[in-house]
Amino acid sequence: MLILGIESSCDETGVALVDASAAATQAGVPRLLAHALHSQIAMHQAYGGVVPELASRDHIRRVLPLSTEVLNRAGRTLAEVDLVAFTRGPGLAGALLVGAGVAVAMGAALGKPVLGIHHLEGHLLSPFLSADPPEFPFVALLVSGGHTQLMRVDGVGRYELLGETIDDAAGEAFDKSAKLLGLGYPGGPALSRLAGQGDATAHKLPRPLLHSGDLDFSFAGLKTAVLTTVKKQLAQHDVGTVAQLPPHVVADVAASTQAAIVEVLVKKSLAAVAQSGLKRLVVAGGVGANSLLRQQLNAGCAARGVRVHYPELDLCTDNGAMIALAAGMRVLAGLLPASGETISYRFDV
Length: 349
Ligand code: KG4
Ligand code: ZN
Description:
The chain is of the alpha/beta class. The protein is built from 10 helices and 10 strands. 42% of the residues lie in helices and 18% in strands.
């Protein structure tokens, strides 16, 4: 049972091949045979963010060569593929259409089923490919550029939303703050690197909804607070742009921003785990690569006897492996194909 997975929701083209046959699987998890990724970061950098039209065009250029590369690396041919999976959303419409179009065409040519996978389900299940995979049930913190959610996960396809952001996502808060600090795109990793050199107690930034008693988040106010802080620093140092500020001043704002975002994520995640009565937390999505978040979650979970699992660092951000994996786990959980339905390519922006 070979599954080819294609991810093209934003600025990475990812393709992967997993084997979901009984001999290759372990505890309902297919084996990853090969995966390949092309990141468009360098292309979008000049514009300070993702340009949707350029993203779509680049996916068109990359998706077939990457598919060939993955099949070659695994020593397999397209004719051997039993199911084609692709990211059906959410994401940029034009970018998603490229992956969907290629997957549906491959499925039609091969006479094999095609399956649209929700992007967040891919992220959510990605820790199953790590050296320390979780077991169901668990609480999941999904933190990406577009989403911030806490979920209770009882099995493949059994997801209960416990709380989510009411405005910006955590990754968006990282990215927008980074932009204000002149750190370019993608902002999260750059802000995190600079924060390592700063004093996180230098500025008191808001921790929105920290004591709201529910499991929701709000990050939109934080970027306004960062903007106010930056303006104050510009006035104090009598300069007009962030680039003219002494580097340690910018690093202090970065560190204070990161501390504010991470504190809220950690406290709410631990509260969700406590409320669920479960002893397992899974963290997934791009912001899950953040080292301060990992440190604080590791410490908080250890103190409470909670196991915490992450995807491997290279599978935290968007990739094809998580899409092929999610499709494989669905097949192994008997969720596919739905009664009488052999092709499922619902498109979902
Ligand atoms: O999951 P992902 O690749 O794409 C979405 O589905 O959105 O997540 C991308 C997000 C971006 O906002 C990026 O800035 C953030 O993850 N990110 C980080 C780090 N690495 C990626 N944020 C904070 N620290 C990091 N090390
Ligand atoms: Zn993503």
